[in-house]
């Protein structure tokens, strides 16, 4: 026989505050001469990133584009993978990161 309780437990949809505010990096006013690194695991990146790269190279002189195929997994699952991704971004000299395409 199943017993039905008159007490219900409900989870609040309002999250608890877990951290303070983060400061955003200063915007790059001009991408000329900058290195842009495209991250992996974004929607249809193999189709859209080459088009984005061509448009950026057309607009900005001396821009260097690091393909998403040359980058490690962009979804680190632990602190070690996160540290490795940050290290690769530094090694490649990334001035900006293309993390998605808005699709």
Outline of this structure?
The protein has 2 helices and 3 strands, in the order βαβαβ. The protein has 103 residues and is an alpha/beta fold. The protein has a 3-stranded parallel sheet, with helices on one face.
Write the SSE topology.
Elements: E1 35-38, H1 45-59, E2 64-66, H2 79-91, E3 96-98
Parallel strand pairs: 1-2, 1-3
Can you describe this structure?
The protein has 103 residues and is an alpha/beta fold. It has a domain at 35-98. Helix content is 27%, strand content 10%. It has two helices and three strands; from the N terminus they run E-H-E-H-E. It has a three-stranded parallel β-sheet, with helices on one face. Strand 1 (35-38), helix 1 (45-59) and strand 2 (64-66) form a beta-alpha-beta unit. The longest helix has 15 residues, at 45-59. The chain is elongated, with a radius of gyration of 21 Å. The model has no long low-confidence stretch (mean pLDDT 84).
């Amino acid at each position: 026989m199943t017993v039905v309780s008159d007490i219900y437990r409900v989870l609040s949809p309002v999250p608890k505050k877990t951290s303070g505010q983060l400061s955003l990096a200063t915007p790059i006013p001009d991408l000329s001469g900058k290195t842009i690194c495209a991250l992996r695991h974004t929607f249809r990146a193999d189709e859209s990133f080459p088009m984005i790269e061509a448009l950026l190279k057309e607009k900005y002189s001396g821009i260097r584009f690091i393909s998403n195929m040359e980058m490690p997994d962009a979804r680190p699952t632990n602190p070690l993978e996160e540290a490795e991704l940050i290290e690769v971004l530094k090694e490649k000299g990334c001035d900006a990161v293309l993390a998605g395409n808005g699709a």
